[in-house]
Amino acid sequence: MESSINRVINFVSPKSKIGENVKIWHFAYVGENTYIGNNVMIGSLTHIDYGVKIGNNCRIEGSVYIPPLTEIGNDVFIGPSTTFTNDPYPMSKKMIGVIVEDGVIIGSRSVFKPGVKIGKNSVIAMASVVTKDVPPNVVVMGHPAIVKYSREEYDKKKDNWNS
């Protein structure tokens, strides 16, 4: 299946690699040497800079900023207006990206310090400020984000909400 990319109202670098069934909504930017896997949705006004890696089956909502060197695994959800950063001492010559492992859920308006690693299947609550690595299978929230409970507890709360 071919990807749905309107190159007139978006900028998608011809030097980027886009997988199958990728949907990029209005006024989005994808920089060069960026890799986007299969079955990815990218929301309107999202800026994905050069040299970014995004896995398969991800959903990136609108107005998200993903700078160079960011790596996003498979099956990741990123809520609206999330901001990743890559420059610990602006404007330095050396940058370091954020690593988001598989199965992570990121709530709206969260912010990530350069170089942090977000562990597999963790959940970042909305508006969290992530200043250090997040272990796998936990829920973090706050300013700065701290562990509040397990992913298992999150899934139970979600199941109760949905029933």
Explain this structure to me?
The chain has 163 residues and is mainly beta. It has a single domain, classed as Hexapeptide repeat proteins (UDP N-Acetylglucosamine Acyltransferase, domain 1, 3 Solenoid). It has one helix spanning 151-162, and strands at residues 4-5, 11-12, 17-18, 23-24, 29-30, 35-36, 41-42, 47-48, 53-54, 59-60, 65-66, 71-72, 77-78, 83-84, 99-100, 105-106, 111-112, 117-118, 123-124, 129-130, 138-142, 145-150. The strands form four sheets. It has a nine-stranded mixed beta sheet. The protein has a six-stranded parallel beta sheet with strand order 3-6-9-12-15-18, with no helix packed on it. The chain has a four-stranded parallel beta sheet with strand order 2-5-8-11, with no helix packed on it. The chain is globular, with a radius of gyration of 15 Å.
Count every helix, treating DSSP H or I runs of 4 or more residues as helices: 1
Query: Percent of residues in helical segments?
Result: under 10%
- The general outline is globular
Query: How large is the radius of gyration?
Result: 15 Å
Mean pLDDT: 94
Task: Characterize the main sheet.
Answer: 9 strands, mixed
Please name the CATH architecture.
Answer: 3 Solenoid
CATH fold group = UDP N-Acetylglucosamine Acyltransferase, domain 1
Write down the secondary-structure element order.
EEEEEEEEEEEEEEEEEEEEEEH
CATH superfamily descriptor: Hexapeptide repeat proteins
Total strands: the figure is: 22
What's the CATH first level? Answer: Mainly Beta
Q: What structural class do the secondary elements suggest? A: mainly beta
Determine the N-to-C terminus distance.
34 Å
